[in-house]
Amino acid sequence: MPEEHEQALRLLGPSEQARLAQYQGRRYREFLQTRLLLRQALSTTIPGAPPPEHWRISERPEQAPLVHQAVDQGWRYSLSHSRGCIAIAISNAGPCGIDLEHQRPRANLMALAEQWFHPDETEFLASLDKPDQIVAFYRLWTMKEALIKVTDSSVFSGILASTRFTACGNPETLQGVQAHSLALPKAPFSLAIVCAGKPPLDVTDGYPLETAERVRPTLTSYAIDPAPSLAQATSGRSM
After folding, report:
1. Which of 85, 168, 203, 214 lies 20 to 30 Å from 1 when distance is taken between CA atoms?
2. Whole-prediction pTM value?
3. Of the candidates 202, 118, 123, which has an alpha carbon nearest to the alpha carbon of residue 160?
4. Are the beta carbons of 117 and 109 closer than 8 angstroms?
């Protein structure tokens, strides 16, 4: 086993080690890289934070991992990964949820929309040509997944089909928890963040974070109807 890999494994706590042992291949690499990136992102973001090796992370069934020191300091975070890419959101302005999906054609796209989307959204998708339909589907899907993480719900709770996302031309008029779809330059991914407060103005693209590029995505903000309750919001569910 390469020394670099052994050093990475030593950063993980007991519950992370136990979960990692359940995976192989790509899933193994993505889980390990996500936990390492989360530690570095917290150390880079939180003022006065300890180095990556000092973060204590505990795995929780069907929920996001618990980073004890971050939660104690009032920080929220959310994780997602798709096709070898990892997305992490960290906020001290309230709950946040993030979801990343690779945009790929699906034969059952409209069937999924009819099952999980609001009827108005399904009608909108049906009116689009195939290429635009794929992009619009994943834009809505990622916002709904991010909302699930913020509200600590599940896909079976009915929240997906009962919630409607409406594009807003002026994000300053939005209140409370809101959704934001971020289109990254030349990247066939849909990225969505649901959070309280102002939308993100730019994102860090690349790894390691010290040399990452700051990019300004094309951002579209959405009102959420019905609006989720901040009192019920937590740090999110699983990736």
Report:
1. 85
2. 0.88
3. 118
4. no
Q: Is the pLDDT of residue 209 over 90?
A: no
Alpha carbon distance, N-terminus to C-terminus of the chain: 27
DSSP state of 13: -
Q: Determine contact, residues 86/30, Cβ cutoff 8 Å.
A: yes
Q: In the structure encoding, which two tokens stand for residue 212, read together?
A: 């990452």
Give the contacts of 153 (CB within 8 A, at least 6 positions apart): 147, 159, 237
Residues in CB range of 196: below 8 A, 6 or more apart: 91, 93, 94, 95, 96, 176, 177, 178, 230, 233
CA distances for 230 relative to 3, 27, 128, 224, angstroms: 45, 33, 34, 13
What distance in Å separates the CA atoms of residue 237 and residue 130, rounded to the nearest whole number? 31
Cβ neighbour number for residue 215 with a 10 Å cutoff? 14
Would you give the DSSP letter of residue 62? T
Distance CA 83, CA 29 (A): 11
pLDDT tens figures, 141-161: 999 999 999 887 766 667 888
Residues 108, 119 contacting (CB under 8 angstroms): no
Backbone CA torsion sign across 133, 169, 189, 142: negative
